Amino acid sequence: MCETCGCNITPGNTHLVSGEGRHARTPDGHAAVDLLQGLLAENDHQAAHNREHLERWGVLALNLMSSPGAGKTSLLEATIDALGHEIGIAVIEGDLETENDAERIRAKGVPAVQIATGSACHLDAHLVHRALHRLDLQGIDLLFIENVGNLVCPASFDLGQHRNVALLSVPEGDDKPAKYPVMFRAADLVLCTKADLLPILPEFQPTRAERFLRALASAAPFEILSTRGDGNLEPWLKWLRAELDAQRRRLEPAHGTDLSNDHQDERNQGRVRQAL
Amino acid sequence: MHELSLCQALLDQVEQIARQHGAQRVERILLRIGPLSGVEASLLRHAYPLAAAGTLAEEAELAIEPAPVRVCCNACGAETEATPNQLICGHCGSFQTRLISGNELLLANLELTIPERENDPRD
What we know:
heterodimer; A: alpha/beta; Rossmann fold; about 15% strand; globular; B: alpha+beta; hypothetical protein PF0899 fold; three-stranded mixed sheet; three-stranded antiparallel sheet
């Protein structure tokens, strides 16, 4: 339901807004209008548009969220090293200031757009929409949106992603899912990062972190990894491959071709179909 | 601290609806907010006057109705009260529950002052 396109006006309530209708009255004579519409309707509308745009290009978009310094950019660097030769990857980076993270990603040969949010503590669908205009999605299979490091606000804003990934690094403590339930409840996958520090931070107990996650009624996989040395990235890479396959299968019936490789053909076919 | 930007989005929606109804002024805004929406009602109240200044809703009362956290259990079917970080079934303890209330972030109701039409047969 939204005001933008008028889809909240139905045959059942159009008389209220047509100018001739009678409103329910409060005892002191004010007109009362029942609405029940989401406060983030404008953002959600833009997010749906972003998702549609990404799907037209056959792109799977992942929203990466965590505290600042939990290792989002390091994870992306390691992921590009592991998968960059087989999968087309692009990155949108959100930070309050600097191009530092985008430069780290570009150094790996992957296109990256930096959004400097100024003082805004989260990305929203409009910021991502603007970034998408600066990104060529030709040949891209996987778009990472690295959100502003913050365990509070990013959880409330749909960006048009397909999946949420939350990172919880060992130095942060294992009770973060209990302290920030809104964020961790929204995660489709939780990665416990910087596992190489577990031997020197024995107070972090991965089993306890996972227990706090389950208390949020979350069935999201909980994987323990490190981007240093032999950090066991395999469960993460396996999850990515499975999500990419699932996305391809989801999009195939609608389009009939593998969108990720040949957009031009797809567009031409569309024209032919239209002409017929 | 995204309550200010949320207030601006709220006021955009409220003003649009008020204009659609030909309202002169917005008297009262009723929101329904659950703790799992990630929005803090008290912060929203503080941010509201800043965002509302100069709008049709400048003088409006902002009423916020809290929504309780409730889950429905997929295992035993019970509906129970829960807390934001304990969303397990209060009856059987299973974590396979669905949230049925608690993440609302809704504009529920508006009260408007709409100028009366002259010779309105209904009045």
